TrEMBL record:
Source organism per UniProt: Amylibacter marinus
One function term, GO molecular function aspect: ATP binding
Record field: transmembrane: none
Domain ABC transporter: 18-253, 270-517
This protein's name: Heme ABC transporter ATP-binding protein
Domain of life: Bacteria
A Pfam entry, by short name: ABC_tran
PANTHER family to which the protein is assigned, alphabetical: CARBOHYDRATE TRANSPORT ATP-BINDING PROTEIN MG119-RELATED (PTHR43790), GUANOSINE IMPORT ATP-BINDING PROTEIN NUPO (PTHR43790:SF4)
Keywords: ATP-binding, Nucleotide-binding
Length: 522
């Protein structure tokens, strides 16, 4: 099926855990997968990359029985098979860890692992046997987790391990991971990769979908590249590099670093003064936070997620009232006694690209054109008069989609039916349109492909150069370094220091993220 050599686990002749031939799938007029061929050698880690909307998740969902292919053949370990449901897929030894975890938060680890395996005889096997298996799998693969812990008490990295354990417990020998590192800290990502290598060395075949080319280079044996629903190439990872992969994905050369000139800061547009916030359990989640930001400047905020960044963003965008201190924004004040809501802030000239596009960025069951005019109900783009003019918003949305290369460019498609990266482009297109004076951005490129990252970064730099004051919170250190003029590092709800981006590097930021002061980290 493929004309290039793929790295195998050393078996001769090469055995393929998975072979796909001629797989096609359409959703209405969208041809999400067209005649896809893929061979995955047993006991290898195989990367699948491609632009947003290229069809990666669709292909994996077909494999996991969540969608049915319109055409094509599938072989597992050389045996032809038909997959009609997830149960079929699990029975064939396929497991999947989704981007959004499927665990029940109020159940324990053990209960979650037992859930869904009822048909597999697990309940009959009983708690004791399941506990033993969990312990054995945890020790074998370096994923020891307390079986009695509640999922809601576990951090994201540990929850992901529970998902993997659950798949292995169900007998998975082919494991699909759909963008597993999007929500992980750099340390958790490292730990995950160690686990994947141990699994691979034990003969498990892993399919890894990610947008992060450095991860592809670090952990995969082979990589397959998709574009616009087709498979455009396969490479042995050791024989390629990030630049070649980016070009194969996007069909042109891509800048993998941010290009920007020096900042020309103007007057202070945002000033944060001794800001503090207390959680519902009475913990200080934000402590004595102070900084100024001028027009024409980007302040990056780096830190391991969960160190107060979310609360800071919530206060700056009017979603949370500060418990102490105040924010001066565009000449107005926000404090405990004089709060402002998101609408008031928006009218003052603030825009917000939220950290979680599913919760705060989009109404998933609304059409793209309805989402693109959210927050603009009183403006011309929704038509004149009391009723929204659908022709006007349709034209407006089509223009926005064209500028931001949203695919498919269908204003009437519900937001939930766009791929993750295209959903992000819809949110950014809407927020930038208001031509804000202050822009607050959380995780601008989470789940976004390299071509779109380049585009989003250029848009943010252009806004900066037009005089906008921008705060960017990102867990991607390279992104913070590339975009920002100054960087504030947060640890345990407070600022560890503010450094000039030109005078720092990943090492110093990493030390500061661990709570080591700026001076000590230098
Ligand atoms: N249920 C659906 N109804 C309509 N269109 C869909 C549906 N699911 C996916 N699509 C479309 O199929 C195409 C492929 O989407 P898919 O989610 O497979 O892409 P992807 O490569 O995983 O993207 P991303 O990297 O952004 O997650 C996209 O154009 C998407 O809008």
């Amino acid at each position: 099926m493929s004309d290039i050599e793929l790295k195998t686990s050393g078996d001769t002749p090469a055995r393929f855990a998975l072979e796909l031939q001629g797989i096609s799938k359409s959703f209405g007029t969208v041809r999400a997968n067209r005649d896809i061929d893929l061979q995955v050698p047993s006991g290898t880690i195989h990367g699948i990359i491609g632009e947003n909307g290229a069809g990666k998740s669709t292909l994996m969902n077909i494999l996991y029985g969540l969608h049915r292919a319109d055409a094509g053949e599938m072989r597992i370990d050389g045996t032809p098979c038909k997959i009609r449901s997830s149960a079929d897929s699990i029975a064939l030894g396929i497991g999947m860890v989704h981007q959004h975890f499927m665990l029940v938060p109020r159940f324990s680890v053990l209960e979650n692992v037992m859930l869904g395996s009822e048909g597999g005889g697990l309940l009959r096997a009983g708690r004791g046997a399941t506990l033993d298996t969990l312990k054995r799998l945890g020790e074998t693969y370096g994923m020891v987790v307390d079986p009695n812990a509640l999922i809601s008490d576990l951090n994201v990295g540990t929850r992901q391990r529970v998902e993997i354990l659950k798949a292995l417990k169900g007998g998975a020998r082919i494991l699909i991971l759909d963008e597993p590192t999007g929500v992980l800290t750099p340390q958790e990502t490292e730990q995950l990769f160690e686990i994947l290598k141990v699994l691979r060395d034990d003969g498990v075949t892993i399919l890894l979908i990610t947008h992060k080319l450095d991860e592809i280079m670090a952990v995969t044996d082979n990589v397959s590249i998709m574009r616009a629903g087709t498979m455009v190439g396969h490479r042995e990872t050791a024989q390629t590099n990030a630049a070649e992969l980016a070009e194969l994905m996007v069909g042109r050369k891509v800048l993998l670093t941010v290009e920007k000139g020096p900042a020309n800061p103007t007057e202070i547009l945002l000033s944060v003064d001794n800001l503090g916030a207390v959680s519902s359990r009475g913990h200080d989640v934000l402590k004595d936070m102070s900084f100024d930001l001028r027009g024409g400047e980007i302040l990056g905020i780096a830190g391991v997620s969960g160190n107060g960044q979310t609360q800071l963003l919530e206060i700056l965008t009017g979603m949370r009232v500060p418990d102490r201190g105040q924010v001066n924004i565009l000449g107005d004040k926000i404090s405990k006694t004089s709060p402002k809501n998101p609408r008031e802030l928006r009218e003052m000239g603030l825009a917000h690209i939220p950290e979680d596009r599913h919760i705060h960025g989009l109404v998933l069951d609304f059409e793209a054109q309805e989402n693109v005019v959210l927050g603009y109900h009183r403006d011309d783009i929704t038509g004149t008069g009391a009723l929204i003019d659908r022709d006007v918003i349709n034209t407006h949305c089509a223009e926005r989609m064209e500028t931001f290369d949203v695919r498919p460019s269908n204003p009437a498609l519900n937001a939930k039916n766009f791929s993750g990266g295209n959903q992000q482009k819809i949110v950014i297109a809407r927020e930038i349109y208001s031509n804000p004076r202050v822009l607050i951005v959380g995780q601008p490129t989470r789940g976004v492909d390299v071509g779109a990252i380049e585009f989003i970064h250029k848009q943010l730099i252009a806004l900066r150069d037009a005089g906008c004051a921008i705060v960017v919170v990102s867990v991607e250190l390279e992104e913070v370094l590339g975009l920002s003029d100054r960087i504030m590092v947060m640890n345990d709800g407070q600022s560890v220091g503010i450094v000039d981006a030109a005078d720092t590097d990943v090492n110093q930021l990493g030390l500061m993220m661990a709570g080591i002061s700026q001076e000590a980290a230098e």
